[in-house]
Amino acid sequence: MSTITVSEKKEFIHWFLGHHELRKREVAWLLSYLSSKDELLARVHFVEHVSLLPKSIIISTKCSDMPPFQFSRKKRVGTDVESVFYDLQLFPDEDIYIGLYFQDRTTCPKFAAVLEGNPMERQDLVQDQLLSLFAEMLLDQSVRRFQKKQLYTKIDESLMNQDKAMFLKLSKELKKLVEESK
Fold this sequence. Notes:
By secondary structure, the protein is an alpha/beta fold. 58% of the residues lie in helices and 14% in strands.
């Protein structure tokens, strides 16, 4: 559930349109349309990155190197602003994520105030953490296996050399290693 209110989003859009020149004027119409429909605006989320999201829009100003406009829905990408109007009519209950690209976006307090997290990135973060933990466990298991093998070899050598003190020391280390891995 979004903690950014519709009125905050509306205020931001009006500020944004008043202070930035878009590379496609139809995008200004789209943003104005969104700000005039509270039900739609409630489903709009401004995010830093739109990657992996089911329905997203990239909007950039003239001072940005990003594409002027890009609409993505279920991995289909288009550059026609009109297609968003149709999509909003057909699927008004779907969330839509907007990535705005403009000069000083990373230091703009007004943008930061409406910025929300990408839910797919959170899922990726959890997946990455799980994979990292699994890799760490696998590495730890491999290291223990190697250490055991080394100890067995040294124990064999101590038996061949009839070195009782070394045998007892290495056996104690092996016992400790086996107990730690339980």
